[in-house]
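Final report, closing paragraph on structural work. Over the funding period we assembled a curated collection of sequence-structure pairs, and we close with a single example.
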Amino acid sequence: MSSQLSGVLTALATPFASDGEIDEKALRRLVDRSIDGGVDGVVACGSTGEFAAMSAAERRHLVETVIDQAAGRVPVVAQTGALSTKEAVGLSRHAQAAGASVLMVVTPYYEPLTLDETLHYLRTVADAVDIPIMLYNLPGATGVNLSPDIVGRLAREVDNIQYIKDTSADMAQAGQLIHRHGDVISTFIGWDSLLLQAITEGAAGVMAGTANVMPAELVSIHRALRAGDLERARVEWARIYPLMDAIMSAPFIPAIKAALDAAGFPVGGPREPLLGLDAGTIARISSLVQALPQLSAAR
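Its predicted structure, as stored:
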């Protein structure tokens, strides 16, 4: 399957000002940081972007702002899943009208749905729009795992379901998606620390919150792998892995924001009920960022 969307996609963090409101100026700079780092697309209102802590109006504004700032330089993926089908359809239609390239749709994440309910929700949202859909498999939050064969069935039934972001952290499952159903759907891995394995296995790309912090580094590794230069990719991966591991081992959203702060790119703290990291974890992440001075230079 030839995929229009591929490579490294930044799951954008959402900067918040001291009053708790979205910091639009910092958001625009964050979009530029990723694009200047060479990423292949940016994602608005994903999990790293704290969409679940936002109102529908804030989500619409954020999507509009990211699309405006990207200005056609890279595709924008808008995450439009919601607790109700009605809201998901409304957000999806808005994002399409605003100029999103792809819609990413997570299944409702409070009341675990049956498989039939999940499939009905996804079909309804996909049928409400004309642009490509990326399924967002996030079983840790939704209580529902979209198995590779279910995903393949959906992609064969619904023309605009073309991508999946799999955040199961299960490379065996990812392998089945890639090798059993790669003719109808392109797989993005949503677990940052699996980048090396995923691209080597044949994934279309990765959607990474850590690309907020180190976009050029992840892009360089991806390019090396696509060029068949595994040795260079492994050397570069080993250089950034300590920071990657520290971020992935901590509460993810505040860890991304702590790393950006250490790189001289403050984006505020997470929105409550999420809290910031403890002092020891912040110090560890900060020291690892400082060990990669190019991260602070890429502003």
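The first strand starts at residue 7 and ends at 11. The mean pLDDT is 95. We thank the funder for supporting this effort.
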